[in-house]
Design brief:
Elements: H1 4-18, E1 23-28, E2 34-36, H2 40-47, E3 52-58, E4 61-66, E5 70-75, E6 80-86, E7 95-101, E8 105-111, E9 117-122, H3 130-133, H4 146-153, H5 160-165, H6 175-185, H7 198-217, E10 258-262, E11 265-269
Parallel strand pairs: 2-9
Antiparallel strand pairs: 1-7, 3-4, 4-5, 5-9, 6-8, 7-8, 10-11
Helix pairs in contact: 1-7, 6-7
The protein binds a DNA duplex (16 and 16 nucleotides) through helix 6.
Length: 275
DNA sequence: CGAGGTACCTGACAGC
DNA sequence: TGCTGTCAGGTACCTC
């Protein structure tokens, strides 16, 4: 489901509502969703009674910083949702982990396809969460400069779409925002990374930042599953240029948007604007 | 390094 | 109505 803008939207809401709260108890309905520690009881005991000090984001990972130098890490994968509820709220069929707050609220981890994961790790050691430990740079951070992006692409013979989707290369882009960024930059998704011109790299760099910034501004893209912590939809689906627009007119040239399998994923692009 | 496949799950939708 | 195949915002793991 969620990519960087959706996760960022959720993180901002969680921070506002959860900072300073104490997690009193956790109910795990399906142990498969606990990625670490292996033993669910250890996960529950390690969290119970701790205070939520802050909520942060790294790539598509949600980091709930707890007292005692512990971090509750949550990844939503495809269909995960985090929903803030009042105590005693109805439990949805696909809610598999519930965090009960001391002060009357609940956080429901809902997961239709059960791909999402929760982890409890020491705040100074994220190694047990492999994907988190080896993430690439944050695309909206100051240290992701154009110069750095050029260096990252140097000598990479992979198809650009597959590189952009790779979290260890750059953190946070998923299928929607990758397609949108490549359209904005006018680059065909199947181009080889090391064959992009200097101008194209610069356009892509700007496009990535712009697409993510706008995605956050409009609080994410909801086309089937994504909702924020209050169950509300984002707005960016109304502003997509290519994603989910197969057969429709390109807003730039009037041609027809196509869809093809590239880098193993359904890929949307305008064959005229992205040669 | 890079490409392609499988697996993990449930549900929606198209086609017969 | 119901069966079958395909697809879905993600990632880990495997082989070549």
């Amino acid at each position: 489901m969620p990519e960087l803008p959706e996760v960022e939207t959720i993180v901002r809401e969680l921070r506002q509502h959860l900072a300073g709260e104490i997690i009193a108890d956790i109910v795990v309905e399906d142990e498969r969703l606990v990625g670490y520690p292996e033993e669910t009881g250890e996960f529950i005991r390690g969290i119970s009674g701790r205070e939520i000090e802050d909520v942060r984001r790294r790539g598509k990972y949600i980091l709930i910083m707890l007292s005692g130098e512990k971090t509750l890490v949550i990844h939503l994968r495809m269909t995960g949702k985090l929903l803030l509820k009042k105590a005693g709220a109805a439990i949805d069929k696909h809610t598999h982990v519930i965090f009960h707050l001391k002060d009357d609220g609940e956080l429901h981890f809902n997961n239709l396809r059960k791909f999402g994961r929760v982890y409890l790790v020491a705040s100074d050691d994220y190694a047990p969460v492999g994907g988190l430990a080896c993430l690439g740079p944050e695309p909206l951070s100051e240290d992701f400069t154009l110069e750095k992006f050029r260096e990252m692409l140097e000598g990479r013979r992979a198809v650009i779409k597959s590189l952009l989707l790779k979290q260890s290369f750059l953190a946070g882009l998923g299928n929607i925002y990758t397609d949108e960024a490549l359209f904005l930059a006018g680059i065909h998704p199947a181009r080889k990374a090391d064959q992009l011109t200097g101008g194209e790299i610069e356009k892509l760099y700007t496009a990535i930042k712009e697409v993510l910034t706008r995605g956050i501004k409009y609080r994410g893209t909801s086309f089937s599953d994504y909702v924020n912590t209050m169950g509300g939809e984002g707005d960016f689906q109304h502003r997509l240029q290519v994603y989910q627009r197969v057969g429709e007119e390109c807003f730039r040239c009037g041609g027809e948007i196509e869809k093809e399998k590239i880098a193993g994923r359904g890929t949307h692009f305008c064959p005229h604007c992205q040669e």
